Amino acid sequence: DQIQSAFKKRKFQIEVPESEFPEIIITVPDSWPKILLAPWYDVHRGHSLHADSMFKKHRKWFVDEPYVLGFNGGDFIENAVEGSPGIFSQDEKPDEQFDAATEMLAPLQHKLMFAIPGNHEARTHRVAGFDIARRLADNLRVPYFGDYCFCTIRWRGLKFRICAHHGTG
């Protein structure tokens, strides 16, 4: 299983503390010479204008770069459902987009810190009560936050803070 083998490659520690806020703490080994951050926002897999060759180039860099961390910042898939703007602009059905997204993210799962939804994933939740962004995070075994996330990265005695949010469109 590709995700299970990627999961075992994770080089940092994740802690989700009890908090009144959506919060995660990432501890990176002090031996890392640097930390590069590369979030995945608005990939829109399944839209006719999705830049697949550009995405593959960036994904290869992400996989090959040993000191990069990222997160799914939402709208990884187009996910146009009935009544959505742009429903005729997608070239794959949402379930096909979801399966493709799982496959696309599996090789870099061990470098993902967390996931949040975007407005395109919210479409399915609004129409059917199904949180497709949560399901993708569960498939990839990364912590999921249903709106925004405060992320603290600890490294070499320092603390870097990120507030990740997608917005609504």
State the strand order across the main sheet.
1-2-6-7
Largest sheet: 4 strands, mixed
- What order do the SSEs take from the amino end to the carboxyl end, as H and E? HEEEHEHEHHEE
The total of helices stands at 5
Flag low-confidence runs: none
Radius of gyration using CA atoms only: 16 Å
Structural class: alpha/beta
Q: What share of residues are in beta strands?
A: 15-25%
Q: What is the residue-mean pLDDT, rounded to a whole number?
A: 88
Q: Let me know the number of strands.
A: 7
Q: Span between N and C termini? A: 35 Å
What gross morphology would you assign?
globular
What is the helical fraction, as a range of percent?
25-40%
How would you sum up this structure, described in words?
There is one protein chain. The chain has 169 residues and is of the alpha/beta class. It is built from 5 helices and 7 strands, in the order αβββαβαβααββ. Strands 1-2-6-7 form a 4-stranded mixed beta sheet, with no helix packed on it. A 3-stranded parallel beta sheet has the order 3-4-5, covered by helices on one side. The protein is globular and about 50 Å long.
Note the main attributes of this structure.
5 helices; globular; 3-stranded parallel β-sheet; alpha/beta; 169 residues
Summarize the structure.
The protein is α/β, with parallel strands linked by helices and about 170 residues long. Helices cover about 30% and strands about 20% of the residues.
Strand and helix map with partners:
Blueprint: H1 2-7, E1 13-15, E2 23-27, E3 36-37, H2 52-64, E4 68-72, H3 94-105, E5 112-115, H4 119-128, H5 132-140, E6 148-155, E7 158-165
Parallel strand pairs: 2-6, 3-4, 4-5
Antiparallel strand pairs: 1-2, 6-7
